[in-house]
Design goal:
Organism: Demequina sediminis
Number of domains: 1
Keywords: Membrane, Transmembrane, Transmembrane helix
Region (Disordered): 1-22
Strand content: under 5%
Radius of gyration: 21 Å
Number of helices: 4
Largest sheet: none
Distance between the termini: 60 Å
Helix content: 55-70%
Protein name: DUF4870 domain-containing protein
Order of helices and strands: HHHH
Membrane topology: Multi-pass membrane protein
Oligomer: single chain
Length: 127
């Protein structure tokens, strides 16, 4: 009768599975998702949401909120650019810029504290 060696120990998770994030990492990536909208539009929250949505519920929620906000602001900027022909766009575009800056800073500060932030007006396209 031949004896077989014992099976190798099983690791709790495969090395390619998403690893949970620490609270400081969650706050960092949520803050970057909100602050990224100010400088680069919808690209930072989109990348952060796609990469980290399975690793942290907090980052998933805040990146989606920032992504929805940036999509709404992109639409408002487009409308403002089109309506510059009728002069009203010259009012809309600065208001959009001010809203992105002010609410982006407020959202980044709240996310850095670990608080969930909701923009006062947002079109939640991505759920």
């Amino acid at each position: 009768m031949t004896e077989y060696p014992p099976p190798p120990p099983q690791s709790p998770q495969p090395p390619y599975a998403p690893q949970p994030m620490s609270q400081s990492d969650e706050r960092l990536w949520a803050t970057l998702a909100h602050a990224g909208v100010i400088l680069f539009g919808f690209i930072p929250p989109l990348i952060i949401w796609l990469v980290f949505r399975e690793r942290s519920a907090f980052v998933n929620d805040q990146a989606k909120e920032a992504l929805n906000w940036s999509i709404l602001m992109a639409i408002a900027s487009f409308v403002g650019a089109i309506t510059t022909i009728a002069i009203i766009g010259f009012v809309i575009l600065p208001l959009v810029g001010i809203a992105v800056l002010v609410f982006g800073i407020l959202a980044a500060i709240a996310a850095n504290k670990g608080e969930q932030y909701r923009y006062p007006f947002n079109w939640r396209i991505i759920k």
